[in-house]
Specification:
This protein is mainly α. It has 5 helices and 2 strands. α2 crosses α3. It has a two-stranded antiparallel sheet with strand order 1-2.
Length: about 140
C-alpha cells in the first residue's frame, strides 16, 4: 500500500505535536521544520482540525494543537481519514470506475480485506507510539 504525501505530512504533523501535546504550533514553523509547502500543510491541518484531531486558534498566540491525548489517537484512523479520497484501485472509487472486470472480479474482495487489515494493524498503535521531539519546533 502506498500513502499519499497528504497523509505522510499529516502523520508527520501529528508526530511532532505529540512531542509537545499542550503547545500550539503555527503552520509556518511546522512547514519550516518539516521542509514542506506551508500552503499544502495548511490544507492538511484543516482536514485534521475538521476531524477533531486538532484544535486551531487564529491570531497572536494562535496555532494548532492536539485535541486529544496522543494515546487516544489511533494511527489507522488517521490514515483512513487522510486517505478517504484515494481509492486503492479504480473500482473502489465512488461510482465504481470503468473497470470492465468488475462484475466478475475475484480480486476486489481480497484487496478490500487487505486494505481493512492494513488499517486494523495500524490501529493497534497510537500516536503516542510515534512521538517525535524536534529541537527546532
Amino acid at each position: 500500500m502506498r500513502l499519499t504525501s497528504f497523509t505522510d505530512f499529516g502523520l508527520r504533523v501529528l508526530m511532532c505535536m505529540a512531542g509537545q501535546p499542550t503547545r500550539a504550533f503555527t503552520t509556518a514553523e511546522l512547514a519550516r521544520e518539516l521542509r514542506v509547502s506551508r500552503h499544502h500543510l495548511a490544507k492538511v491541518i484543516s482536514r485534521l482540525a475538521a476531524a477533531n484531531l486538532l484544535v486551531t486558534r487564529r491570531g497572536g498566540g494562535g496555532g494548532a494543537m492536539l485535541a486529544r491525548a496522543p494515546e487516544e489517537i489511533r494511527l489507522g484512523d488517521v490514515v483512513a481519514l487522510l486517505e478517504a479520497d484515494q481509492a486503492l484501485v479504480e473500482c473502489f472509487a465512488a461510482g465504481g470506475g470503468t473497470c470492465t472486470l468488475t462484475p466478475h472480479c475475484r480480486l476486489r474482495g481480497r484487496l478490500a480485506e487487505a486494505e481493512a487489515a492494513f488499517i486494523a494493524d495500524l490501529n493497534r498503535g497510537t500516536l503516542a507510539d510515534c512521538v517525535i521531539r524536534l529541537g527546532g519546533v
